[in-house]
C-alpha cells in the first residue's frame, strides 16, 4: 500500500487516498477506513477535493469519480457520461463547477448533474489530463501527459506560450498551482 493523495477538508479531517487500501479519514484522533464495503467502486484513489457544498470528491484510477456526502459514497462512471474511469485530476472552479481530468478521456466539466467532455477533437493537446488549475481571470489551465499545457478560455484552447520549444517536449508531467500561473494568463 502507498499513499497517493493527502487532503484536508474544511472540518480539519485529513483524507488519505491509497493504492489498494481505499480511502482513510483521520478525524478527532481516530481513523476511519472506506473501501468497497462502504461504497467505493475502486480502491486506487488519486485526486481528492472538496466543493463549496462540503462534498468530498475522489477520483479513482479505474472506478471513475466518487462523491462522499452525508456518510455515503456515490460513484459516477462512463455509464453516467464520464469520458473515462481513469480519473487523474480534479478542480472546482470559481462558478462551483467540477472539472475532471482523465487519463485518455480528456477533461470533463461536471455541472448540474451532467458531464460535458472536451477532447483533442475540441482542441485539447492530449486526452491524458493530469493537472488542472484556474487562474484569477477564470481561465482553466490543463496539464497533459504528452501534450504540454493548454489554457481553456471562453471556449477556446490555446497552448502555453513558450519561446523554448524544448520545454513542450519535456513538460509532459506537471503539477499546476494558481501561484504558478501569475504572469502567464494574459
Question: Can you tell me about this structure?
Answer:
It is a single chain. This protein is mostly beta strands and 186 residues long. The protein has a domain at 77-181: TolB, C-terminal domain (Neuraminidase, 6 Propeller), CATH 2.120.10. It is 3% helix and 46% strand. It is built from one helix and 16 strands. The chain has a four-stranded antiparallel β-sheet, with no helix packed on it. The chain starts with a strand and ends in a 16-residue tail after the last helix. The model is unreliable at 167-186 (pLDDT under 50).
Which key phrases capture this entry?
186 residues; mainly beta; Neuraminidase; 4-stranded antiparallel β-sheet; 1 helix; 3% helix; 46% strand; disordered C terminus
Topology, pairings included?
Layout: E1 2-8, E2 14-19, E3 23-27, E4 30-34, E5 45-50, E6 56-60, E7 64-69, E8 72-76, E9 87-92, E10 98-102, E11 107-111, E12 114-118, E13 129-134, E14 140-144, E15 149-153, E16 156-159, H1 165-170
Antiparallel strand pairs: 1-2, 2-3, 3-4, 5-6, 6-7, 7-8, 9-10, 10-11, 11-12, 13-14, 14-15, 15-16
Amino acid at each position: 500500500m502507498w499513499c497517493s493523495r493527502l487532503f484536508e477538508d474544511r472540518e480539519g479531517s485529513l483524507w488519505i487516498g491509497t493504492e489498494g487500501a481505499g480511502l482513510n479519514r483521520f478525524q478527532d484522533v481516530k481513523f476511519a477506513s472506506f473501501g468497497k464495503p462502504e461504497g467505493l467502486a475502486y480502491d486506487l484513489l488519486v485526486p481528492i477535493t472538496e466543493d463549496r457544498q462540503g462534498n468530498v470528491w475522489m477520483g479513482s484510477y479505474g472506478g471513475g469519480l466518487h462523491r462522499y456526502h452525508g456518510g455515503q459514497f456515490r460513484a459516477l462512471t462512463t455509464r453516467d457520461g464520464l469520458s473515462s474511469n481513469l480519473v487523474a485530476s480534479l478542480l472546482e472552479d470559481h462558478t462551483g463547477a467540477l472539472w475532471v481530468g482523465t487519463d485518455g478521456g480528456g477533461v470533463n466539466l461536471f455541472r448540474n448533474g451532467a458531464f460535458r467532455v472536451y477532447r483533442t477533437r475540441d482542441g485539447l493537446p492530449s486526452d491524458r489530463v493530469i493537472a488542472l488549475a484556474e487562474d484569477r481571470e477564470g481561465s482553466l489551465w490543463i496539464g497533459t501527459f504528452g501534450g504540454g499545457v493548454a489554457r481553456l478560455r471562453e471556449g477556446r484552447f490555446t497552448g502555453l506560450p513558450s519561446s523554448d520549444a524544448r520545454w513542450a517536449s519535456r513538460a509532459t508531467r506537471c503539477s499546476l498551482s494558481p501561484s504558478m500561473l501569475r504572469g502567464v494568463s494574459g
